[in-house]
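Sample entry copied in:
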Amino acid sequence: MADGVLDRREVGLDLALRILEAVRSEAVRASLRVSAAVVDRGGNVVASVRMDDTPLGSMALATDKAYTAVLWETPTGEFMQSTQPGGPDWGFTTTTGGRIVVYAGGLPLHEDGRLVGGLGVSGGTGEQDEACARAALAAAGLA
C-alpha cells in the first residue's frame, strides 16, 4: 500500500478517512454542515460522514456524487449544462437507476494519474460543496 492507496489501485480506508477529516475541517472553516462520501473505483462506499445538523438527504446526494464522479471520471458539476433539455447528455440523469447526480460537489480521485475512487460532498450550494471537496483533496495531497 502506497500512501493509502491499495495495490489494486483503489482508495483505501486510511486515505478515505484522511480525506473525510479534511472535508470536515474545511466545512467547519467555511461554516458549513455537509455530508461526504468516499467511494472506490467501483463506486462502493469506503467511508462516509454526516456532520450534525446536515440536511437528511445530503448523504444520499454525497454518495451519488462520488459514484457519478467515478463512473464518468469527471467532476459532477461539468454535466450541469449538457444535461439540460436538448443538450447532448439529456436523459443522462435517468441512467443507472437514477444515481447520476449533475450538481457540483463530486470529484474523481486520482493517484499517479490513475482513477482510484471518488469524493462527493453535499449540504451547501453546489459551489460550496465543490470548493469544500477541492480543498479537502488539496489538504490530503491529491490535488
